[in-house]
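Ops channel
N.P.: pipeline sanity check, posting one input/output pair.
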């Protein structure tokens, strides 16, 4: 069976840019490797969530890996928390958060506690706290970030964010979002935990040291994105593919972990425009020795689109293409290149414009498309399809799709 390298350039799709003579950043970029894959492959356009729907990155990725977001997306918390290596059990409620700083009146002075670099000591002081039969698992994330899991009977994710998302205002206890006993119990337990956490954190010697040094103490946990976890079958369980994930950004590692992929750490994978794309692609080729399906995520096309930096986005796409030269000559490998959504520079945000898709490798019906771009792919042999229809087409090319009927 062929193996798969599945490349997602975040926010790849775009709209015509006047300064580029009405070409998109992808159309403007010089991409000889992707063009060659397109010329010898099959292309199409994908509406990740369906026409007219604008996806967030988390939901978009679930869809393109074949997981219906209506069933498998319950909030960002469980995805981020899995990315931190925290196992989840059915019935858990997971949240993501920041260690921040509040003053004596509970006003948020700094949402990131001076961008504190390492929160392990703060997290371990709270980890294992039990309130009202709920155990709180607290683990450090990168820099000021943390993951929180509430574990116990009768929990609900129908609670509001305990994070006002801005500084200079009072902290906000979580509220139940419906009248159920579960939502009220969860909001109450979390509220009590956050108060207790504040008092525990305030008393830590490490925070007293920070204050003596004039640094803001990490004395409050701001949590958001509650999601209820119930068992998510892995890609291996659903498709029989041993899957790996190579990503720099925490959310994307989280998506990989959430779907049961092995996380491969690549030094230099930063999720920024300076990321070492070549190292990521080399790691992907190496991973094919132990895995059937390797997801490689590159982030910066999206961030540059949100900055309105069309030149930077086009240049970054060229860098990704250059690195893709190490993928040439992999005869038994399906190479798939796409985006999770469009992030048009002119809008500086996600849009519902469809994204180009190219598939190169054994079994594809080569079409007439000779370059990789939004308009070229619109004429490709895959046609126009939705995100949930992508993985079934990959499985078909691998020869493992199930026969329906007799
Ligand atoms: Zn995205």
């Amino acid at each position: 069976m062929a193996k798969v390298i599945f490349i997602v350039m975040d926010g790849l799709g775009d709209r015509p840019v006047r300064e580029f003579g009405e070409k998109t950043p992808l159309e403007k970029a010089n991409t000889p490797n992707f063009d060659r894959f397109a010329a010898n492959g099959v292309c199409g356009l994908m509406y990740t969530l369906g026409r007219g729907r604008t996806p967030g990155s988390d939901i978009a990725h679930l869809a393109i890996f074949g997981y219906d977001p209506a069933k498998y997306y319950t909030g960002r918390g469980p995805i981020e928390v899995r990315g931190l290596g925290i196992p989840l059990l059915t019935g858990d409620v997971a949240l993501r958060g920041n260690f921040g700083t509040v003053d004596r009146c509970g006003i948020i002075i700094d949402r990131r506690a001076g961008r504190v670099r390492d929160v392990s000591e703060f997290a371990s002081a709270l980890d294992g706290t039990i309130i009202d039969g709920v155990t709180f698992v607290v683990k450090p994330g990168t820099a000021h970030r943390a993951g929180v899991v509430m574990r116990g009977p009768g929990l609900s994710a129908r609670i509001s964010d305990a994070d006002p998302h801005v500084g200079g205002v009072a902290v906000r206890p979580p509220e139940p979002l419906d009248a159920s006993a579960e939502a009220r119990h969860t909001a109450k337990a979390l509220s009590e935990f956050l108060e207790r956490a504040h008092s525990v954190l305030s008393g830590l010697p490490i925070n007293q040291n920070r204050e003596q040094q004039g640094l803001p103490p990490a004395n409050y946990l701001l949590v958001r994105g509650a999601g209820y976890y119930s068992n998510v079958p892995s890609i291996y369980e659903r498709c029989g593919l041993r899957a790996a994930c190579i990503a720099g950004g925490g959310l994307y590692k989280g998506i990989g972990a959430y779907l049961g992929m092995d996380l491969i750490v690549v030094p230099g994978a930063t999720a920024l425009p300076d990321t070492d794309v070549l190292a990521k692609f080399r790691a992907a080729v190496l991973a094919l020795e132990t895995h059937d399906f390797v997801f490689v995520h590159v982030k910066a096309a999206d961030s540059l689109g949100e900055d309105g930096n069309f030149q930077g986005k086009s240049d970054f796409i060229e860098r990704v293409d250059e690195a893709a030269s190490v993928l040439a000559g992999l005869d038994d490998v399906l190479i798939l290149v796409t985006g999770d959504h469009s992030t048009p520079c002119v809008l500086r945000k996600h849009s519902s414009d469809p994204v180009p898709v190219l598939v190169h490798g054994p079994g594809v019906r080569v079409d007439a498309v000779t370059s990789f771009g939004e308009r070229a792919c619109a004429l490709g042999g895959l046609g126009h399809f939705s995100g949930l229809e992508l993985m079934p087409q990959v499985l078909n090319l691998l020869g493992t799709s199930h026969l329906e009927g007799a």
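N.P.: looks fine end to end. Residues 10-11, 57, 60, 302, 340-341 surround zinc ion (CB under 6 Å).
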